Amino acid sequence: MLESSLLAQLIAFRKDRDWEQFHTPKDVAISLSIEAAELLEWFQWRNHDEVEAMLESDKREHLEDEIADVAVYLSYLCHDLGIDLNQAVKKKMEKNAAKYPPDKVKGRADKYNEYS
Amino acid sequence: MLESSLLAQLIAFRKDRDWEQFHTPKDVAISLSIEAAELLEWFQWRNHDEVEAMLESDKREHLEDEIADVAVYLSYLCHDLGIDLNQAVKKKMEKNAAKYPPDKVKGRADKYNEYS
Amino acid sequence: MLESSLLAQLIAFRKDRDWEQFHTPKDVAISLSIEAAELLEWFQWRNHDEVEAMLESDKREHLEDEIADVAVYLSYLCHDLGIDLNQAVKKKMEKNAAKYPPDKVKGRADKYNEYS
Amino acid sequence: MLESSLLAQLIAFRKDRDWEQFHTPKDVAISLSIEAAELLEWFQWRNHDEVEAMLESDKREHLEDEIADVAVYLSYLCHDLGIDLNQAVKKKMEKNAAKYPPDKVKGRADKYNEYS
Asked: Where is region (Disordered) located (chains A, B, C, D) (predicted)?
């Protein structure tokens, strides 16, 4: 997912701090879901126009940090479980494509909702 | 994050179905957090040994699918907001490195907990 | 939180199935957050008008079921940890009232956002 | 769910601050899921013994505050949607009881996992 040199840096970061011991797959999955909630918090109580304005403000950096946190835990999880993320996404998209043929679901919110 | 050809495929997938209209940044962030919870659900009620056994079983594919779903929404969000994920992670890791010098936090769960 | 006879029923439900063994506080907290995500899923991709329409439709029962699931895990957690929920909310509301005096925060989204 | 006088206090709290305007059902559901993640954060990286020790420490109050936050948003949501939580839980438990007869699922983690 991330550049390989950056992934190597993440791995070194936790090794240098002797923090691998905390990274069971279950605890990393917990952390990923907590970080996803913190990312969502950035949008909390905001309507579309307010979000657009915040994206142009100095609050953008905070959003980028939250997105980075999600990516970091996702990268640790894939690394630790030996999952090739590109491969996993490819396989999932093939299933999605078979399940949702464009001509049957185009622009339909109901189908989209079933999909997601 | 993903290979550029795969990201192009994701973008085409939603365009072919006329589904961009549903993808406001806030709704994509909601979806990311829902998918992270579905990923966590794979680990629900399982202890470490049970997780290890499931990783070797045919339940592994389900886990990979859930991880793929998280990656898909993360990719849409970064694409739509013009965020370079490698860049965002680099900046965040610099902050983390400054905040948690190895000699002060090594192997300490309390510091790790503050960190995360 | 729930009527005491209903709470007794929840406790009997898991005892009759010998399921207390799975209910560590951490796993119940995981389940609570998963159920909260499933509740949120009901609202996923919907705008305000669509939500209002769904509330009047036969999809309302599904929402009530998801809300019930959240309440069930919250009730188990409070029961198992010996927490009086009314008491906990009272104490938290006192802190909130001290932190957010009406004359300083009235109608201000920015203060509201700091608050939540 | 909460004592009726306490619920009245919650309703007054947001009215006094003119904050009802932010409380669409969807945004309250978002907040509920964020608070559930913050509750889960209390357990993050902790094993069972560490959780037990924290429950006896001065960190317990923080946990009670997070549980209160979940209950507050759950209460607002039920109030705003006119949902009787006891009634909703009763109906859900009837469905669960029909779906999981004790003699078929007793002590079985696999059935429990299907259940949750």
From this structure: 94-116
Averaged pLDDT in 10-residue chunks for chain C of 116 residues = 93 95 96 98 95 96 98 98 97 94 81 62
Gap from C104 CA to chain D (nearest CA, Å): 9
Mind telling me how many Å the CA of C48 is from chain D's nearest CA? Answer: 8
The answer to the question of residue B110 being in a domain is: no
Tell me which residue in D22, D33, D36 faces A45 most closely, judged by beta carbons: D22
CA dihedral C24, C43, B36, C7 (to 10 degrees): 0
Q: What does the H/E/C string look like for chain B?
A: CCCHHHHHHHHHHHHHCCCHHHCCHHHHHHHHHHHHHHHHHCCCCCCHHHHHHHHCCCCHHHHHHHHHHHHHHHHHHHHHHCCCHHHHHHHHHHHHHHHCCHHHHCCCHHHHHHHC
Residue B113 located in a structural domain:
no
Residue among A30, A73, D75, A24 at smallest CA distance from C31: A30
Touching chains, C (3+ CB pairs < 8 A): A, B, D
Task: Determine the structural domain holding residue D21 and report its residue range.
Answer: 4-104
For chain A, what is the domain count?
1
CB contact under 8 A, D44 and A38: no
pTM for this model (two decimals): 0.95
**Residue D85: burial class (beta carbons within 10 Å; 0-12, 13-18, 19+):** buried
pLDDT digits (tens, 9 = 90+) for B12-34: 999 999 999 999 999 999 999 99
Considering the domain boundaries, does residue B109 fall inside one?
no
Per the domain annotation, does D109 fall within a domain? Answer: no
Q: At C65, which CATH number?
A: 1.10.287.1080
Q: At A111, is the secondary structure helix, strand, or coil?
A: helix
Q: For residue D10, report the phi and psi dihedrals to the nearest 5 degrees.
A: -60, -45
